[in-house]
Amino acid sequence: MPASPPLSELTTLRLGGPARRMVVVTSEDELVAAVREADEADEPLLLLAGASNVVVADEGFAGTVARIATQGAEQLQRSDGRIWLDVAAGEDWDRFVAACVDGGLAGVEALSGIPGSVGATPIQNVGAYGQEVADVIVSVRALDRTTGELHDLDAEACLFDYRSSVFKRDPGRWVVLGVTFALEPSELSEPVGYAELARRLRVAPGGRAPLAEVRDAVLGLRRGKGMLLDPEDPDSVSAGSFFTNPLLRERDFGAFAARVADRLGADVAPPAWPAGERRVKTSAAWLIERAGFRRGYGDAAGIAISSKHTLALCNHGAGTTAQLVALAREIAGGVEEAFGVALVPEPVFVGVEW
Which of these, 97, 138, 195, 217, has the minimum number of CB atoms within 10 Å of its CB? Predict the structure, then answer.
């Protein structure tokens, strides 16, 4: 059997060697059958749809890659005035967001421009500019690979947290087949809680704006940071934000702030936002920059920090996965040495040890 094309042709990082075998699934039944076939044969299985949040080894994947190309969205019912939409996992996320905006449905407009598939969004509880999918997900239809059974997990059972869920905390167990969202019929957005977006829209924090204007503003902000897929922008050849913003316990935050002041000066305080459950969120980008890693740091022909945003690691054409991981480790090590904070990668690593 000939090897599949390099997975670099599928991933937004343009990195990754070939798989042993590749299949394309276009329906939920085909997806379930492909997973069960691989599991019964004890065959390693990698599920890929948008491939925007994955780092694949240069050696490739010694198993089957199932490309999820399932399509379809169905309006199910109204609940408390909201519109419920059941969407196939393989649907393109930004096309779904655009359709919601065009259709006058509020709740995901600030999530415009995020690459990847609908099915990937609940796994890491995708969020940006003050919104996250946990706010609008009613349920997730998924295959439990440990039992072979199908389940509809309601939002509570999904155990959503910051960039996490039951699907992410138990990797390999669940296969997302479809997601049901509840959106608000409205020509105006949900309250804009993200300060940068509010300034762009010229509304007060907590104010609302027309859906199309919010989408355009978010796309503009993402484009300016190289976070919008664009063949003309070399900084967009990335996996988006490579590290999540650290969450610290409230009781540990004082010691962290003191370490920042000791290193950077008594008048310097780290960014901080309440994150619930006695936790405080700080900025990974801020830490990376203050640890001495600037935009463009790295190999200008290979792997380097984006020239627009320190959270993105970009492949400028001659990069390898090994080079990417080495730079990511260097950055994380520098931040931990400087501030005592461990950065957590956001992408899924395939055949790569972090």
Answer: 195
Domains and CATH numbers, the chain: 7-68 (3.30.43.10), 73-224 (3.30.465.10), 234-350 (3.90.78.10)
196 as an active site residue: the answer is: no
Largest CA distance in the chain: 64
Structure pTM? 0.93
| CA 168 to mean position of chain CA atoms | 11
Over the stretch 321-342, which tens digit does the pLDDT of each residue have? 999 999 999 999 999 999 999 9
Name the catalytic one among 21, 67, 141, 163.
163
- Catalytic residue at 241? yes
How many CB atoms sit inside 10 A of residue 112's CB?
Answer: 26
Band (76; pLDDT cuts 50, 70, 90): confident
305 CB contacts (<8 Å, ≥6 apart)?
A: 288, 293, 294, 295, 296, 297, 298, 312, 313, 314, 327, 331
From 241, 290, 306, 307, the catalytic residue: 241
